[in-house]
Amino acid sequence: MQTRGRLYRHLRDRFRAAGLPTADLDARLLAAAALGIDPASLVLDPDEAVSGEGAALAEAHLQHRLAGMPVGRILGRREFFGLELALSAGTLEPRPDTEILVEAVLARVSPEAPLRIADLGTGTGAICLALLGRLPLALALAVDLSPDALATARGNALRHGLAGRVLFLQGDYAAALAPGLDVIVSNPPYISHAELAALDPGVRDHDPILALDGGADGLDAYRVLAPQCHDLLRHGGLLACEIGAAQGASVAGLFAAAGFQRIEIVQDLAGLDRVVLGWKI
Ligand SMILES: C[S@@+](CC[C@H](N)C(=O)[O-])C[C@H]1O[C@@H](n2cnc3c(N)ncnc32)[C@H](O)[C@@H]1O
């Protein structure tokens, strides 16, 4: 008889043998998802029998993972800043690094302020939904070029009860937005062509190219965003962008050239440059 505990150990041992760095966690998440149970139940009730259907689904998850598919892609969902977000073919899988951007903004605005926020290149809606969850009086515009991403983001907003405070727009960054915004956030595509060629297949083959390709040197989006956002922000407004680890000085330079002041570069938990912030004074 197949049990929860045996099924989990089967996945774990195969992932360990394949050298996956997060073998135990991946096995727990994928086995629990296949069985439709909480991961803790694998440990609490290891002797519970599993259905043939559950075991077959776990085997399919196992094969996908061994073929290099990230866990979030297999599950079709991912946790970000405490929110479970659905993914789709048109969305980047949100990364923990991007939580640094959310935290950097939250540390610089008042939670009681009725802020008008724009999230340019919203993907799953990760950044703006995380912000709206912590800023109860804020409203947001979430823009993406991808209609698939926008549909997914809208579903995520509905799931978390935030759809009444965010408007989803298909567009080219801020080209269609009106001035007067308080905060603009963006995690634009910032991978250079040289880095794209060398990218881990788990990223290259599963995240959409529109979410990754930052042009020859990775800075194309910031060249557009910095002047565009300076025009759209009110005086006292904040622009916060996620960046690649080697882009801090270049993006700070683009912010300064567009007229931003009090520019800061914030590091992630690994000490790498991750966010550039600037104020329109
Ligand atoms: C790196 S992903 C970030 C997604 C999400 N904000 C996150 O942090 O997980 C960049 C997003 O920008 C969108 N995008 C790319 N070019 C764009 C453009 N010119 N205008 C609007 N969105 C764009 C992509 O479709 C993608 O959803």
Automatic annotation (TrEMBL):
Source organism's superkingdom? Bacteria
What reaction does this catalyse? L-glutaminyl-[peptide chain release factor] + S-adenosyl-L-methionine = N(5)-methyl-L-glutaminyl-[peptide chain release factor] + S-adenosyl-L-homocysteine + H(+)
Q: Which residues form a coiled coil?
A: none
Asked if the Swiss-Prot or TrEMBL record annotates the protein with the keyword Transferase, the reply is yes
- Enumerate the spans annotated as Release factor glutamine methyltransferase N-terminal domain: 7-76
Spell out the molecular function terms from Gene Ontology: nucleic acid binding; peptide chain release factor N(5)-glutamine methyltransferase activity
Q: The Methyltransferase small domain covers which part of the protein?
A: 99-195
Residues noted as binding substrate in the record, renumbered to the chain: 187-190
What Gene Ontology terms for biological process does this UniProt record contain? methylation
Q: What's its top-level EC category?
A: transferase
- Residues where S-adenosyl-L-methionine binds: 121-125, 144, 187
Record key words, sorted: Methyltransferase, S-adenosyl-L-methionine, Transferase
Q: Which family does it belong to?
A: Belongs to the protein N5-glutamine methyltransferase family. PrmC subfamily.
Q: What does this protein do?
A: Methylates the class 1 translation termination release factors RF1/PrfA and RF2/PrfB on the glutamine residue of the universally conserved GGQ motif.
Q: Which PANTHER family match?
A: HEMK METHYLTRANSFERASE, MTRF1L RELEASE FACTOR GLUTAMINE METHYLTRANSFERASE
Protein's name according to its UniProt entry: Release factor glutamine methyltransferase
Taxonomy-wise, where does this protein's organism fall, top ranks first? Bacteria, Pseudomonadati, Pseudomonadota, Alphaproteobacteria, Hyphomicrobiales
